Amino acid sequence: MSFGYSLRSFTTVGLAALLGFSSPALAATASGSxxxxxxxxxxxxxxxxxxxxxxxxxxxxxxxxxxxxLSVQCTNTTPYNIGLNAGLGIGATVASRKMTGxxxxxxxxxxxxxxxxxxxxxxxxxxxxxxxxGTGAAQPxxxxxxxxxxxxxxxxxxxxxxxxxxxx
Length: 168
Known about the structure:
8 strands, elongated
């Protein structure tokens, strides 16, 4: 009686079973998917500001000029306006800001958005602010300052604080 197996094939199959080899089992898989999302809202932030420092002077007989930079970052394609307030000096306006020193003495100065110092940088949107469109990256802006010729007050340190407002 013959079963169609040779001793040799039986031995190979038996040996494979003893060594732990088996025929590969069929693997079953299942798959699915999920959505990943984020909502980006129009947004702006003042990234950095730096002090505007005029050189030390004695009698103010000529214009004293200085500049500084600030950076604003807004989402890509977001239109915005950068405004600078009048500061904290008593009686200050955006056209004539005032640094306060010893005994409340004042030094007048003005901030401009152009290097020729002809365009006053104020806080009224679409009037005296700087407008731009966001790129998604920080965008630098130069603030140009001028202390004009004026009666010179007492010696000492004179300061003011300007608030930067980004409207978008």
